[in-house]
Write a structure and sequence with these properties.
Mean pLDDT: 95
Helix content: 10-25%
Shape: globular
Radius of gyration: 15 Å
Number of strands: 9
Distance between the termini: 27 Å
Order of helices and strands: EHEEEHEHEEEE
Low-confidence stretches: none
Number of helices: 3
Strand content: 35-45%
Largest sheet: 5 strands, mixed
Length: 130
């Protein structure tokens, strides 16, 4: 096995999620296909196509799924977005309205700041050291 290709992120609405991940975070929309059951197969990816893990944006279908929107990891940072230029991406994301929950900090492993997506899921924006 070579890599994890997709991770599912449960969302309230396909179009608002697509806008956030493409406009605010700079991801690419790689798939948006209707399915027979009325759902859609929606995938967004950061970086160069096929080199990382994409997000399958899945609209919540039931009450139990809807209850997980924005809290898929119980309040922990659950997603890690690596960058090669922290200052550039932090400034662009801030200008796009992304909410950072802390100021950037320098750790032995790199420069990092926690932000939340439009639903409240916590992410690290991280420029690895070295």
């Amino acid at each position: 096995m070579r890599r994890i290709a997709l991770v599912t992120l449960v969302v309230d609405d396909y179009d608002e999620a697509i806008r956030f991940y493409t406009d605010a975070l700079g991801f690419r929309l790689t798939d948006d296909e209707p399915r027979a059951d009325g759902s859609r197969w929606v995938v967004v990816e950061p970086g160069t196509p096929g080199t990382g893990t994409g997000l399958l944006l899945a609209r919540a279908k039931a009450e139990a799924q809807a209850a997980r929107v924005g809290d898929q990891t119980g309040g922990r940072v659950g997603f890690f977005l690596h960058t090669d230029d922290f200052a550039r991406d932090h400034a662009r994301m801030t200008a796009a309205g992304v909410t950072f929950l802390e100021d950037p900090r320098h750790e032995p492993y790199g420069t990092v700041a926690v932000f939340q997506d439009l639903y409240g899921n916590r992410w690290d924006l991280l420029q690895p050291a070295g």
